[in-house]
Amino acid sequence: MTFSLIAREPETGHLGVAVASRFFAVGATIPFITPFGAIASQALVNPVWGVEGGKLLAAGDFPETVLKTLKSKDSGHHQRQVHLMTADGQSAGFTGSECIDWAGHKTAENISVAGNMLAGERVLEDMLSCYLDTKSVPFAERLLLAMEAGEAAGGDKRGRQSASLTIHRGEAFPWLDLRCDDDAEPLIEIRRLLDVAGERYIHFTEMMGSSANFSGHADRSKIEALIKAGEEARKAENKPSASRQFERP
């Protein structure tokens, strides 16, 4: 019922998971990211694979070992599809024998893609090709472009309903976590949200605390300067805000 990708940006070590499906609120149950790796648990979803898999990655287990352990615990594993990636880019995938066609998974360096109930294998092939061909594109945009390529190839054969885009920068909390839970064009909505995030939110995240710097950079003037520069750049391009915010008079 879903197609997803997990990717690692080698220059920074940032991890991202993007998902789309003809299923409600797909971002609530499928993506799991920790400082030790990322997991997407889908098909007949069992989110415990994400929770327990994260613990196994934290303990240093190899990807294939993690999957073997989780399969041994789950009597319904024939209906599960799970793929994962470690913080250093090692990946592995599992597609249960009872997942609904077309179903499968593919990997390349620093990228893993998987899907079930797809229009065909080309969905994953086009996702993989798009990602590998867009190395100069910023990470979040690159993930979204790959998902859009999968949708253009037919995506979930039943249709569209929800999507999510999550990126962690080595922390237990996300740097970016965008969701569209119920929409006829969820990836278009994720793209709009990514544009809105670039207006203010992403500038703000640069000031947040981290495991290496608890206090972060608590200087509002720097945030406001970055936001103002972005507003001026959009005005110069005659590009209106993508936000649907409401300003009180």
Which key features would you list for this structure?
four-stranded antiparallel beta sheet; Glutamine Phosphoribosylpyrophosphate, subunit 1, domain 1; single chain; alpha+beta; 249 residues; six-stranded antiparallel beta sheet; 6 helices
Task: Describe the protein in words.
By secondary structure, this protein is α+β, with helices and mostly antiparallel strands. It has a single domain, classed as Aminohydrolase, N-terminal nucleophile (Ntn) domain (Glutamine Phosphoribosylpyrophosphate, subunit 1, domain 1), CATH 3.60.20. The relative contact order is 0.15.
Helix-residue proportion? 25-40%
Give me the count of strands. 10
Number of helices: 6
CATH C-level class is Alpha Beta
What is the N-to-C order of secondary-structure elements (H for helix, E for strand)?
Answer: EEEEHHEEEEHHEEHH
Q: Kindly report the spatial arrangement of strands forming the biggest sheet.
A: 7-8-1-2-9-10
| CATH architecture descriptor name | 4-Layer Sandwich
First-last Cα distance: 45 Å
